[in-house]
Amino acid sequence: MNTPPSPSAAEPVDGSPVRLGALVPLTRPGWVEAGRHLLAGLDLAVREVNDAGGIGGRPLELLVRDTAADPERAAAAVEELAGLGVAAVVGEYHSVVARAAAARADAVGVPFLCSSAVLDALTEEPTEWVARLAPAQSRGWRIYADHLLAAGRSRIAVATQPSVYWATGTRILREHLASRGGTVVELDTTALAPEALCDALVDHGVTALLLLVGSPEPAVPIVRAVRGDRRLAELLIGAPAGQPEFAGWAEALGEDGAGIPFLRYLPEHFGPLGERVGKELGERLGEAPSFVAFEGWDTVTVLAAALRAHGTERAAVAGAWPHVEAEGTRGPIRFSRTRGIGVWQWTWAPVQVVDRDPADPDRLRVLHTG
């Protein structure tokens, strides 16, 4: 993909809105809780940008499209939004969906700032049109594997579903653990009911089970089955993709959902900006904001910086990725090229391994940072 051409000098000055498209999973089978938090962050940042005078006096306007975890739906939304004249598209949580959106954004020439999807290969070929805030899956999942090894868990089973995201995660774990003496066995949840899965875990003598599956189905029934099997009392359950992050997990599983480590992308301690934004997000959501809500706020904030400094035409926005810098809730954000990743990447958002405290499932404990 060639570098986008220089922006035109012509910029609208009539006060008309600067439109941004937003891709968010708001209905099933999408991860609806993640979508709600992502949209809360996007909305809050848009309001703050507009309260501060907008983009050269023009307000930001968010055009929201529900992807429902459907790649084809997301690609169609990108095309529709491009036709509506958006300056850029933002958002998306699901990696496979974001990959489809990124491909269509590249094809039609609209900038796409991906908020939350982590799949390393977000595009098949390098592109100038796409940038990403979330750390690459290979980075986060290797940090997670290091936590497992530090906890003495080297014989790992992964409960999987068919998906390029889960398959890529399995490969990352297998390669990283194998180089350090660990092993990974894959168990297909489409072929094994939860009780049969428990039997397989016993037969393989594993010390940890990682849930590389959707939530609540089949993750919640698997957790219930494992927790109820006395043969597996010492087995660690893990969920690197973050299923236990949201309140629905604790509501569905209670104490059974605690003590299950997962990845989130927050700093150990927030600065004043993160504290303020976190408080306002909590008031909007009626619960503690997840890392996904902070990703949403950071997305609009860094894009607004690009729009102010480089203009609102699409080629100008895409050309701004290597030059823009903004203070996000989780640290200074700037984009660069990273080996093996074909989009402009923030290197890196902070990574934590956390779990819900067995003594208080509503409280999250930081177990490991990277």
How many individual β-strands?
A: 15
Classification by helices and strands: alpha/beta
- Strand adjacency order, main sheet: 2-1-3-4-5-13-12-11
Radius of gyration: 21 Å
User: What's the helical proportion of residues?
Assistant: 25-40%
Provide structural commentary.
The protein has 370 residues and is α/β, with parallel strands linked by helices. Helices cover 39% and strands 22% of the residues. The chain is built from 11 helices and 15 strands. It has helices at residues 32-51, 71-83, 95-108, 137-150, 164-178, 194-204, 219-227, 247-253, 272-285, 291-310, 314-320; strands at residues 18-24, 60-66, 88-91, 112-114, 130-132, 155-160, 183-188, 208-212, 236-238, 262-264, 325-328, 331-338, 341-346, 352-357, 360-369. The chain is globular and about 70 Å long. The chain starts with 17 loop residues before the first strand and ends with a strand. Residues 1-12 have low confidence and may be disordered.
Quick take:
With 370 residues, this protein is an alpha/beta fold. Helices cover 39% and strands 22% of the residues. Helix 1 (32-51) packs parallel to helix 10 (291-310), helix 2 (71-83) packs parallel to helix 3 (95-108) and helix 10 (291-310) crosses helix 11.
